[in-house]
Amino acid sequence: MTEQLRPGRFVSANRRVREDRRFVAGKGRFVADLDIPGVAHVALVASQHPAAFIEEIDASEALAMPGVVGVLTGDELAASTDPLMNGLDTPHVRRFPLAVGQVRYAGEWVCAVVAESRALAEDAAEKVRVRYTKLGFVLDAEKALQTDSTPVHPAHGSNVLLDKTFVWGEVERDFEKAEEHLSFRVTWGRNSTVPIETFGVVAKWDPWEQVLDVWASIQMPKYSDQIARALRIPGNAVRVHYDVDVGGSYGVKRGIKHSVLVAYLARKFGRPIRLIEDRIENMRAGDAHGPERIFDVDVAFDRDGRVRSMKMRALDNAGAYAGRAPFQLGKPIGAIVGPYLIESVQYHAVSVTTNKTVEEAVRGFGQSPTNYAIETMMDRVAAHLGIDRIEIRRRNFIRHEQFPYTIPSGSTYDSGDYHVVVDKVLEAVDLPALEAERDRLRAEGLCAGIGVAACLEPSGGNSSFEPLLNEKNRTSTWMESCRVNVDGLGFVTATVHTTSSGQGHETLVSTVVGEVLEIDPDKIRVVRPDSLGSLPGNSPVGSRMAIMLGGAAAKAAEDLKGQIMRIAAHALKVSEASLVYREGTIEGPDGLKLQWSDIVDIAHRRFHDLPPGVAPGLTATHILQVPTGRELPKEGRAQMYPCHSFEFHVVLVAFDPVLAKPEIRRYVIGHDCGTVINPHIVKGMTLGGIAHGIGAALLEEFAYDEGGQLMTQSFLDYLMPSSHEVPAVEIVKHVTPSPYTVFGQKGSGESGYLGAPAAISGAMHDAVRAWGITFDKLPIRMSTVSDKIAAAREHDRKTA
Amino acid sequence: MKLDIRGEEEIAATQAELWDALNDPEVLTKCIPGCRSMTELDPDHYKVEMQLKVAAVGGSFEGEIALKDKEPPTTCRITVSGAGSLGTGTGEAQFTLVPKDEATTTLQYAGEGEVGGLVAGVGQRILGSVSKHLIKQFFTALRKHFAEKTETAGA
């Protein structure tokens, strides 16, 4: 446990988000805004087949066109670079930025054409002739799993990337002892976050300095390391500029293949190269699809509604290459029982390759699909026993006094007060009134339903799923760092060593440092040094920055304050214990006083007045290890993330039984993410997360036809929730501080999204309860709802 | 995605005239929508260059057309394969020419096409109607060809 600082005047205060000003004024600085002299542009030649050998590439016509700088093929790239990083131990699943010898999904990049403008590059790309021999392909995860399925990577031998079964506790015994069992299958459709800004990168190689400069719309851990490794150049030859704004990500802005490609081209052609994906490139070949997952769940429970044990198989369709995405089956292990007391769990995690676009990390890193499966389970158990859906959750919740609570898979939940949050939400909702409203809508002839979901947001992103799923991986830290510096004029500057994709790091760091040093956060500058000037860090993934960057900044500021107190004690010739720090002024006994400017003067100019052993200048650095991150997983059990935020959703949905277009009539969420550092940021995350969840539940899907072609590669077909679909959301706040963080904060970067799909699915089921219809796949399409109701009515008519 | 193509059209030509026209690269170049050139590779085997636009996607196609299982002047099988910036397409159809009266022949056709690449993804919702439209354009041009021929002959 960490010694906790008490939230005070800036932390949790209603203060503006500092970044908002430049975004609202349209003055953000995105990668496409950069004006780099001499830059050349890339367009891609994409595969038209889901699987084929590349027999011949004829670029002669393209190369002869005016303005064309050159053409790069996968063969050349593969000969000069190393494969992109693989998370799992699957060395024969090799991935390069361009297809090598074989294409593995429709849209995969085959050649890169470089020209003086993007338009010229696109025109030239049309003139590249590629001759293919078509191969068999597989799209469905179940089929890919079969031993006779066409392997996407023949050298790997099968399509199975990962097949691991964990048994935590006495599963078979608990199943035997339980009074009831039930089984079901649900499928989480392939969707993603699809940011407005597509991925973009500019790279420039300076042969005299021997440094590669990279500007990118990136949210990627170990990004510069990965570029250096792939290009076989020293780590300190890659300089990533972190001061580029990122226009949305929530996981998917990983762009490693784009970056290695552009970096290689920049070195090859000796000029800066820029690649900004267009929408189609982004959607079909940005390698940024989210999990597509089939859950088979068996649950054992007693007639009082208590769930005793659960067996879950999660089969994930990873697409054509492995990357880091299969780890999304590992992260949910850290909250595999959700907020419930379930004594034993069997978890079977399977990941397969298919001839679909590559999967990438998406908000929650697999947690939202898992939460959907767990919450469906609770609803089905409730329906089976005829117990109220909220009541059954209450009976199974971990109780406040049981924290810290260790779940069967080895993760300890830090804190929580689930029953109280639910009570507060129900009071805000006025449940009897909501039920009356539902019944009134039903009486009008509409389908109307109430859905509930309770779930956790593990936060503070450690990377324990890496060693858990890949024994060769020995990662046990996922540190984040901050430096706080007081300059010779007494002004404070703090550092962030990664890009921001909208998480509000500048607000976070200035608030936290201001809190500790008791100075106005608006006076604190926050900068992002480039990667060569940076401290170690892991980027804003895993809902971690409030905990990790906030923690590092607070610790660095405390360290700085400690230095100030030592300097003051020495200067005033009194003990440190007799001093009081108040808004930058140090007060001692008998009216002794040192101003901030005195301390700065001593530290920066008067070495002779410094205490022995104290270095001149005023600066402090803190590299924060993830709280609770102490050891490698043992016997299939791991401490995953340190903190666990809780959310409880109540939603009312109504629709016409024939048209079946769901309308969300009421949305209330109870949210407990511990101490809130900036309420506006948390609110924004939650509202955006719910919108994202509405998309996953009802609209968004990367759908393929039987020929392996992506059918939804523009916003005409890939439906995003808009202001028409996203309702006003009421947020009920509760604070259960985490004992593991400096202010008691937990993560909120995934809030809303982690429970919204489950809650909406629950409401849709409640709306059709009269017919006993189930929807076993997300998104729940209007056509499915309408067809199922029509079939049920037809059946009713016949049996009547 | 797969496309089902079938239908029949009446053409003001004798069976023999229609047969000849359908085997004449010059006529086909004129009638196939977007066809810019047709070069004979072998007998009954041609290389074609086309320029097409489907929905928001436009581009050039290069492909091959082959006529097989010919039974003059009544039936033959045509296979088409193409690739270009728009995407890929393959198709196979059976043509049957049935004399209706002295000056009219019914052309019956039935086949299946498969479209891949960008055009399949972006144009899917309109691909069915676009293919019908292209077929209609083909027959309009073919009728025009015979009309012009008659005019020339009559003049």
UniProtKB/TrEMBL annotation, chain A:
The keyword Oxidoreductase applies. InterPro entries: Ald_Oxase/Xan_DH_a/b, Ald_Oxase/Xan_DH_a/b_sf, Ald_Oxase/xanthine_DH-like, AldOxase/xan_DH_MoCoBD1, AldOxase/xan_DH_MoCoBD2, AldOxase/xan_DH_Mopterin-bd_sf. The keyword Oxidoreductase applies. GO terms for molecular function: iron ion binding; oxidoreductase activity. Residues 25-136 form the Aldehyde oxidase/xanthine dehydrogenase a/b hammerhead domain. Pfam families: Ald_Xan_dh_C, MoCoBD_1, MoCoBD_2. Keywords: Molybdenum, Oxidoreductase. PANTHER family: ALDEHYDE OXIDASE 1-RELATED, XANTHINE DEHYDROGENASE. This is Aldehyde oxidase/xanthine dehydrogenase a/b hammerhead domain-containing protein.
UniProtKB/TrEMBL annotation, chain B:
It comes from the Bacteria. PANTHER family: BLL0334 PROTEIN. This is Carbon monoxide dehydrogenase G protein.
